[in-house]
Write a structure and sequence with these properties.
Length: 131
């Protein structure tokens, strides 16, 4: 039986393939891929940050986009997101500032979020009168 694999396609030449920072890391780091190699300044308004990659998640799995704890401790929020197995568009990260952080510049190649792969529970939903 073939082992499940996450397929990654670069949409731009400077996109960085997701990778684990250490052998014990649960998540794969996602990197900003700002068109033209520039930068984006974050504030309290959510901004979509491109990663320059598209992924193919094996059927029976999903990908969760989660914040990095190091950024969260500095007042940088990442909205939790799910990438379904049938999505083929660019993986985007919604980022914003909270708390006392005034501004933060996200540069091309910065680690912006983490991607955690999980198995999907395949179970029916049954309506009942009582629980």
């Amino acid at each position: 039986m073939e082992r499940a694999a996450l397929k990654v396609r670069r949409l731009r030449p400077d996109a960085v393939i997701p990778r684990r920072a250490t052998p014990g890391s649960t998540g794969f780091d996602l990197f900003a891929c700002i068109e033209g190699g520039g930068a984006v300044t974050l504030d309290a308004n959510p901004r979509l940050i491109g990663t320059g990659i598209a992924i193919e998640v094996p059927r029976g799995y999903d990908v969760q986009i989660r914040p990095r704890s190091g950024l969260s401790s500095r007042g940088v929020g990442v909205t939790l997101g799910t990438v379904d197995s049938d999505y083929r568009g660019e993986v985007m990260v919604t980022m914003y500032l909270f708390g006392r952080a005034a501004a933060l510049t996200v540069k091309n190649g910065d680690r912006v979020a983490q991607m955690v792969i999980g198995r999907v529970a395949d179970m029916p939903v049954i309506e009942v009168e009582e629980l």
